[in-house]
Write a sequence for this structure.
């Protein structure tokens, strides 16, 4: 059974209030993702990869098409009744530094999903967090630091740890390692692979590095001008 | 860009009607019987009830407020600001006489505050947490904490009376302008200085400053060509707001220095319930404020190329 | 110098304690806090500290220069200036803090709404802000003094009603740039509600300039209150309040300078102290600022 | 004679709580017409080394040792003297092009400025020269009037290169000129740079994460770990020998982290530069550590011509099996 | 004379005043210090000298054939206005025409008609008998030239008969007057008089000290003694017709009780007040309503002296008692707390001090006083609503020597909070008789009544203060406040 199914997804950006210009960022994207597998998406800059990733989480409202999450259509459900969606699908952004609030300590950043979704009580919180960072091999010493005091690899692991707090079934990774060096990239990708094996998480892995995508994915699609043009 | 300016000007009208409506409503709520206050201002304390009623009916003060407002609006549309309810002078003429002096003072103090605030802010930022920083900061804070009614008189005392170098009151040449401009500019200069300091510190930490230094540019070029323009942006916004305040909020300084400006005219008119004069002043001040803000926004865009007003999202 | 960075479980230092310790390490901020602390204590224990009733007149002992009995001298009605300054701290501080508290809160909320709530709300709020900025605040003060009568509370209301737009503008600008940040998007992806994002992410990051503005504003407010009384709309005599004391001392500026000198000094000290504290809070909250004291 | 010779450089940052030891006892020399690559994990101090040469560090820094540029110690120069060297003799391309260009100045201006400052060119001359440079880096000179935000990431990077090369410095320090770019653009830039460099006979210190690139254009490669250079040698030697586990275990592990070689992460954490491990800095993560690794801090040892390694056992065991 | 240029020998006097001249027409009242300027340009039919004695002005004589019902004024011959228009009966008729504000004002609404009898005789017909010449001394009710307005009735410029002619007026800055070469009286000594508007008193004082102005009017009491001791500065003082007073709201508790009003009078030491906070400037009124310089002011009036014991006793009698450690008296559970209203305006500075002093005196006898300094509109509102205990005011009289109240009088002043038929009757009778002995008698009665019934408690008879510097010689101060006497002044 597929965990995520996307049918004919389109996104058209319009901008300007006087002169309207439109950019078709997604132009009929269709695919389905099997539980526990990884779909790699390759594509050059500006081909619409990030737009697709954001649309899947409804961070961007798609113009048309359908997104089915575990068979349920989530395309047009209003946001306030989508509370369960974050617990199913999550996203890792390209730049770990900018995806963490610079004024929030690491501990609080990881605790955030727990607090938002009231996943555990205040007493359990600390244990829970220690457990989470254990899964991504992070030293507890770092918990009380600020993001700028951590290296890129550490930060990306923090991001993964906080996402894991929600126990998502599917993770969209939008170029999660393009800002990191080779050894850290290896570390992060290995962690992702391990998670897939141990927890059966499905991935959509976006990158423009063919080697990396090939290493990560079961199935690869190439995106060009908002379309998935080639399946490998 | 032109479309943007047109749109902004259209909004100016919206804002102006807002301001005048609120002023009208506010004056309606203000305490006291306007007819009686106007009659007292016109005819002196020895009033008869007949005079009060006469004022009430001839000036249509017994009409509902919205009718009064619409009547006024009707005149405004025909560019007629009306005449003062107290002295019967033409409002437009009176404002035309007073306004240039206010503008002179406002601009002078703004320029003064920038001339002091910006360099001192820079110096203070360049010597962060050093003696010079602490001294300039303390002096700046001194500037903020000195009420201008106090500072103004002290300045007159020192410069006019003790040193005998500057005139103590009135408007006229540059020499008349100095003391009131300093009085008004002091606290503004202090805030400008603090703002400049923090924004300069922000900018000096940016990578492009490192690039400029890596190019081997000398200190002055780095500072003035690369850092200053960026650091000025918040200061410009603040100055725009300040100019608006200066155009209407200078009554105390105008009183102390016998400076014939619009601030005192407005306040006196408010006390005398000289509605048409109040509306005239408010209209002008509001208009200038709106135009200043537009000008500031455009200036902002001309300094910072990233800002585009004709595109959204 | 304390060394350890708290790790989980290894230290029982709570977040607040930690920030407090950070703050105290900033010497100027500490001085500021001590000054404000002293002034606040003076305000609270004014009746114990002040040797005289601040309203008690002794016309035979008016305009006395500072002496042992009257450390700050006496004013034009023979009241003890020291006692008045001490009692005045109550009013002045309450006005400063209340007005800044109210306006910062209110202005910030509106600014957040304006910046985050979409174009329509933004347009409405910003036009309203423009109107308020262009509207002469003295008219408002006049109405409030007229409708509610003059007095401390009404001065606070009048000033609050006119001061908020500055905060709204500021916070709106911060919000607009902040909401485009990726960490906000990340929080949305985690399922955070709008209020949560505003509170935890945007506000936290916008707090620096708000604090700077607020600390500068406390002094401005105290002076504005005095300016209102200059226009006959402010605090009523014989209430001791620094601004009005300064105002009332104006006729004696040259013959009895000490009448204005002492409240003036106190006002200045307060301003300085609040600014030091403001800088301190800013540095404490800003993870990037680490005091660059050379250890060597 | 070496163009630049860094000897026992220590760069330490003093912050409120701790001392960040960003560079420790760094020895490095770059000859004329030579490209030296500097690789190593994030945060190991590569950028700091580059910026130390330019004396572009925040004020809370303490610099010890010497950086001899043509025999003159850069660390002893006055403000004026270093200014004359920056840009003119040593150029630098900072790490993050998006943040490193002044947003309120036209890009052309930012390049032309270098000519005016160092070569005393008139405004028109400088513009003319900048135009030529824009053509060389492959940007239409018509776009010189535009501002950085109108340029794509790759274009900004090329502007940075133009700035670095403008005054034809003798040494160019390029800090990750390819970070965040897609493959095509990356190679485009690298080819461009190496062409320009060879043409003008400029030496370069190339700081990068990308081993492929380093391998492609560098004459020598230095590997840095936790503020120390742990291995340095000719590119071919390093790449080959490390691939076959014959030199420093860290360099070896770094290469094996590439997808091409198996994507094996290095276990453990990058040590914090404020609390460095005792002995060999790498020992907590080293698969081959022995007892004295945690006690003895290894010195650089030449294991082969021009190939130095900072390990107690590698190289030694090689020669004496 | 060429106004712009002043040669070295020219006599130019610069005066600092507190407000601008709001307008020059006689359709409105010239508020503030405008009247000081008016008094140089325009003249009145009847004048007062520096000590407020009546003397002929533009009218050389006047008479009333029917005890004040009809008045004939005989004009001075040969007087011309600044523009050469002759002064004649028509000009007077024009000045007091039905549209002039003079006719609309309470005091002169009694004029039924003004007619020219012949070229130099004007006849005023009154609705009821009234001592009109006394009223017509008011500098704000002068004779103006009909040529002030054009044929359409639009005002052109002020033209009077005074010693100085209007030259120019820069709004909110200055008024320039030049010598009237054809002045009918003693020739004016100055070539030019410049009035500068300087609203802030402290600035005015410093402008005098720097020599930027030669004379200032309205000198604050706090600067007076210092200026007197400053070399090069002369301070001229004279008791004026103005008196500060506490007006009671006699219609509501507690001041509806005469004993409470008296308790206030006994509690306050007006002598100490004038000695201290007013720096000894002004005379303690001790309840006397009419300034001693006024016509009919009774020098032998039984005045109040401070007597706190008596004050307390009166309050006790009125039922306001102190119990335990209270500091404020109570009656039927209600505290004895009243408000005192003070207007924002030229008098605010001294009135606030006086109100605060009163607060202290009254708290000594157990009465709480809340000082409210208000903008005119707010004061006006509370006054009409009767929502106040006392108002601290100044002035109160028709200008000139003539002591006619217009604020206590219940039938004339709309907001009076004192209702006393007897008082109104006597006041009206005094105002309608032309017989001086009878008038004196009636005004003495009124003064007794004010002391007795205490609708208001009079605190200080004010002094007018004018300060000049050494450049000025020959200045003589007048008692009347809105009149500035520039006769015989020379500038060095
Ligand atoms: N909010 C937006 N408004 C208008 N256009 C947008 C918006 N977001 C993206 N686009 C446009 O949509 C197109 C696809 O952008 P997207 O960010 O999805 O590309 P990408 O494949 O992720 O590229 P990269 O590899 O550079 O991250 C681009 O042309 C971009 O300019
Ligand atoms: N001003 C400073 N004060 C204190 N520590 C600093 C300062 N600047 C840099 N550091 C620290 O020095 C260390 C080395 O930083 P550097 O930028 O040289 O790393 P890098 O090797 O260039 O890493 P990357 O590959 O991520 O660019 C980092 O741990 C950094 O946190
Ligand atoms: Mg993308
Ligand atoms: Mg780096």
């Amino acid at each position: 059974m597929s965990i995520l199914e996307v049918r004919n997804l389109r996104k058209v950006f319009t901008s300007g209030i006087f002169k309207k210009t439109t950019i078709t960022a997604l132009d009929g994207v269709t695919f389905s993702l099997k539980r526990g597998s990884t779909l790699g998406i390759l594509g050059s800059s500006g081909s619409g990869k990030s737009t697709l990733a954001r649309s899947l989480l409804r961070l961007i409202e798609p113009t048309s098409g359908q997104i089915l999450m575990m068979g349920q259509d989530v395309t047009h459900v209003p946001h306030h009744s989508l509370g369960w969606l974050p617990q199913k699908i999550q996203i890792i952004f390209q730049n770990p530094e900018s995806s963490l609030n610079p004024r929030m300590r690491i501990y609080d950043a990881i605790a955030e999903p727990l607090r938002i979704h009231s996943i555990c009580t205040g007493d359990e919180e600390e244990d829970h967090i220690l457990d989470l960072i254990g899964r991504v091999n992070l030293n507890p010493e770092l918990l009380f630091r600020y993001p700028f005091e951590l290296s890129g690899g550490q930060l990306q692991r923090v991001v993964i740890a906080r996402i894991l707090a929600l126990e998502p079934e599917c993770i969209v990774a939008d170029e999660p390692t393009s800002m990191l060096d080779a050894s850290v990239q290896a570390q992060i990708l290995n962690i992702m692979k391990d998670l897939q094996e141990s927890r059966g998480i499905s991935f959509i892995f976006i990158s423009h590095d063919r080697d990396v995508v090939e290493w990560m994915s079961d199935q690869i699609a190439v995106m060009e001008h908002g379309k998935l043009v080639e399946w490998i | 860009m032109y479309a943007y300016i047109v749109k902004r000007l259209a909004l100016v009208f919206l804002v102006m009607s807002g301001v005048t409506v609120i002023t009208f409503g506010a004056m309606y709520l203000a305490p006291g019987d306007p007819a009686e206050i106007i009659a007292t201002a016109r005819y002196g304390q020895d009033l008869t009830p007949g005079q009060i009623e006469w004022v009430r009916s001839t000036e249509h003060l017994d009409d509902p407020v919205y009718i009064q407002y619409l009547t006024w609006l009707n005149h405004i549309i025909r560019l007629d600001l009306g005449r003062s309810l107290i002295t019967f002078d033409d409002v437009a003429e009176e404002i035309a006489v007073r306004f240039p002096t206010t503008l002179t003072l406002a601009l002078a103090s703004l320029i003064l505050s920038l001339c002091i605030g910006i360099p001192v802010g820079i110096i203070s930022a360049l010597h962060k947490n050093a003696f010079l920083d602490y001294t300039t900061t303390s002096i700046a804070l001194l500037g903020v904490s000195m009420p201008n009614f106090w500072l103004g008189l002290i300045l007159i005392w020192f410069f006019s009376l003790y040193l005998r170098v500057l005139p103590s009151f009135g408007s006229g040449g540059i020499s008349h302008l100095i003391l009131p401009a300093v009085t008004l500019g002091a606290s503004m200069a202090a805030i400008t200085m603090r703002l400049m300091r923090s924004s300069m510190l922000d900018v000096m930490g940016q990578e492009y400053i490192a690039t400029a230094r890596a190019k081997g540019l000398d200190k002055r070029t780095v500072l003035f060509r690369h850092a200053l323009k960026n650091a000025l942006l918040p200061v410009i916004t603040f100055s725009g707001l300040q100019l608006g305040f200066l155009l209407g909020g200078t009554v105390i300084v105008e009183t102390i220095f016998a400076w014939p400006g619009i601030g005192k005219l407005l306040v006196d008119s408010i006390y005398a319930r000289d509605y048409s004069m109040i509306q005239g002043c408010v209209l002008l001040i509001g208009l200038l404020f709106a135009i200043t803000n537009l000008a500031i926004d455009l200036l902002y865009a001309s300094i910072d190329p990233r800002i585009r007003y004709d595109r959204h999202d | 110098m304390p060394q350890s960075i708290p790790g989980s479980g290894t230290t029982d230092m709570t977040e607040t304690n930690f920030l407090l310790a950070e703050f105290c390490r900033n010497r100027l901020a500490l001085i500021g806090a001590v000054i404000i602390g002293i002034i606040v204590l003076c305000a609270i224990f004014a009746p114990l500290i002040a040797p005289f009733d601040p309203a008690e007149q002794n016309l035979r002992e008016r305009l006395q220069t500072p002496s042992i009995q009257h450390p700050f001298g006496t004013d034009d009605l023979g009241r003890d200036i020291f006692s008045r300054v001490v009692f005045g701290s109550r009013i002045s501080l309450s006005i400063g803090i209340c007005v800044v508290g109210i306006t910062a809160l209110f202005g910030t909320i509106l600014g957040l709404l304006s910046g985050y709530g979409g174009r329509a709300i933004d347009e409405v709020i910003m036009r309203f802000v423009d109107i308020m900025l262009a509207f002469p605040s003295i008219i408002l003060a006049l109405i409030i003094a007229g409708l509610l009568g003059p007095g401390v509370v009404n001065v606070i209301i009048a000033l609050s009603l006119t001061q908020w737009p500055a905060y709204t503008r500021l916070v709106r600008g911060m919000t607009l740039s902040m909401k485009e940040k990726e960490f906000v998007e990340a929080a949305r992806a985690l399922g955070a509600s709008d209020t949560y994002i505003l509170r935890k992410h945007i506000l936290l990051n916008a707090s620096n300039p708000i604090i700077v503005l607020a600390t500068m504003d406390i002094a401005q407010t105290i002076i504005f209150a005095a300016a209102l009384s200059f226009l006959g709309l402010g605090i009523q005599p014989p209430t001791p309040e620094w601004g009005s004391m300064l105002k009332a001392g104006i006729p004696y500026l040259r013959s009895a300078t000490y009448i204005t000198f002492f409240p003036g000094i106190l006002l200045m000290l307060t301003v300085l102290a609040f600014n030091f504290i403001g800088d301190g809070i800013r540095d404490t909250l800003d993870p990037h600022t680490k005091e660059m004291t050379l250890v060597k | 004679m070496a163009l630049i010779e860094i000897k026992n450089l220590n760069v330490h940052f003093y912050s409120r709580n701790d001392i960040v030891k960003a560079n420790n006892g760094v020895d490095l020399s770059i000859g004329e017409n030579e490209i030296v690559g500097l690789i190593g994990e994030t945060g190991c101090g590569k950028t700091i080394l580059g910026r130390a040469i330019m004396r572009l560090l925040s004020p809370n820094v303490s610099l010890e040792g010497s950086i001899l540029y043509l025999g003159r110690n850069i660390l002893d120069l006055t403000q004026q003297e270093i200014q004359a060297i920056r840009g003119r003799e040593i150029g630098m391309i900072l790490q993050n092009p998006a943040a490193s260009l002044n947003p309120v100045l036209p890009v052309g201006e930012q390049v032309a400025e270098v000519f005016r400052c160092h070569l005393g060119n008139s405004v028109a001359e400088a513009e003319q020269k900048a135009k030529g440079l824009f053509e060389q880096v492959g940007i239409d000179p018509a776009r010189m009037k535009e501002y950085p935000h109108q340029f794509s990431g790759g274009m900004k990077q090329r502007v940075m290169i133009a700035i670095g090369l403008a005054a034809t410095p003798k040494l160019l320090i390029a800090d990750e000129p390819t970070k965040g770019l897609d493959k095509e653009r990356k190679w485009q830039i690298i080819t461009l740079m190496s062409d320009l460099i060879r043409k003008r006979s400029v030496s370069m210190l190339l700081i990068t994460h990308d081993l492929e690139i380093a391998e492609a254009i560098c004459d020598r490669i230095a590997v840095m770990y936790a503020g120390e250079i742990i291995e340095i040698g000719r590119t071919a030697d390093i790449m080959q020998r490390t691939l076959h586990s014959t030199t420093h275990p860290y360099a070896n592990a770094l290469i094996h982290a590439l997808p091409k070689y198996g994507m094996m992460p290095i276990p453990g954490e990058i040590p914090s530069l404020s609390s460095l491990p005792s002995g060999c800095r790498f020992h907590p993560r080293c698969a081959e550590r022995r007892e004295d690794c945690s006690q003895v801090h290894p010195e650089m040892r030449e294991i082969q011509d021009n190939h130095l390694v900072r390990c107690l056992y590698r190289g030694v065991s090689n020669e004496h099996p | 004379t060429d106004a712009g240029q002043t040669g070295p020998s020219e006599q130019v006097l610069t005066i600092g005043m507190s407000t601008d001249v709001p307008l020059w027409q006689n359709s409105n009242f010239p508020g503030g210090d405008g009247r000081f300027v008016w008094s140089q340009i325009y003249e009145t039919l009847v004048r007062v000298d520096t000590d407020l004695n009546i003397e002929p002005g533009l009218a050389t004589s006047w008479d009333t054939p029917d005890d004040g019902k009809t008045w004939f004024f005989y004009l001075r011959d040969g007087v011309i206005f600044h523009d050469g228009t002759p002064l004649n009966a028509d000009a007077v008729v024009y000045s007091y025409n039905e549209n002039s504000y003079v006719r609309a004002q309470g005091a002169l609404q009694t004029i039924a008609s003004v007619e020219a009898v012949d070229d130099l005789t004007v006849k005023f017909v009154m609705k009821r008998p009234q001592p009109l010449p006394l009223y017509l001394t008011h500098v704000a009710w002068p004779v103006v030239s009909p040529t002030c307005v054009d044929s359409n009735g639009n005002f052109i410029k002020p033209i009077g008969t005074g010693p100085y002619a209007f030259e120019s007026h820069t709004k909110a800055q200055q008024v320039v007057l030049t010598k009237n070469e054809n002045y009918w009286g003693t020739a004016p000594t100055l070539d030019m008089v410049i009035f500068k508007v300087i609203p802030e008193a402290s600035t005015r004082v410093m402008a005098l000290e720097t020599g930027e102005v030669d004379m200032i009017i309205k000198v604050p009491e706090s600067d007076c003694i210092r200026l007197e001791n400053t070399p090069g500065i002369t301070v001229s003082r004279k008791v004026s017709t103005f008196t500060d007073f506490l007006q009671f709201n006699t219609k509501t508790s507690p001041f509806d009780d005469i004993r409470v009003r008296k308790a206030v009078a006994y509690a306050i030491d007006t002598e100490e007040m004038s000695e201290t906070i007013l720096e000894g400037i002004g005379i303690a009124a001790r309840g006397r309503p009419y300034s001693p310089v006024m016509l009919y002011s009774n020098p032998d009036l039984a005045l109040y002296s401070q007597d706190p014991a008596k004050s307390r006793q009166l309050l006790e009698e009125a039922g306001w008692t102190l119990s335990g450690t209270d500091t404020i008296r109570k009656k039927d559970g209600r505290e004895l707390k009243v408000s005192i209203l003070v207007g924002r305006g030229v008098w605010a500075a001294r009135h606030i001090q006086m109100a605060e002093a009163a607060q202290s005196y009254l708290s000594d006898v157990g009465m709480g006083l809340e000082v409210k300094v208000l903008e005119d509109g707010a004061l006006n509102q509370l006054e009409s609503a009767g929502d106040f205990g006392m108002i601290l005011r100044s002035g109160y009289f028709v200008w000139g020597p003539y002591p006619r109240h217009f604020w206590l009088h219940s039938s004339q002043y709309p907001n009076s909070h004192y209702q006393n038929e007897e008082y109104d009757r006597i006041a009206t009778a005094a105002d309608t008789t032309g017989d001086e002995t009878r008038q004196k008698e009636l005004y003495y009665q009124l003064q007794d009544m004010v002391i007795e019934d205490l609708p208001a408690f009079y605190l200080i008879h004010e002094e007018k203060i004018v300060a000049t510097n050494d450049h000025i010689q020959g200045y003589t101060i007048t008692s009347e406040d809105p009149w500035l006497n520039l006769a015989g002044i020379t500038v060095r």
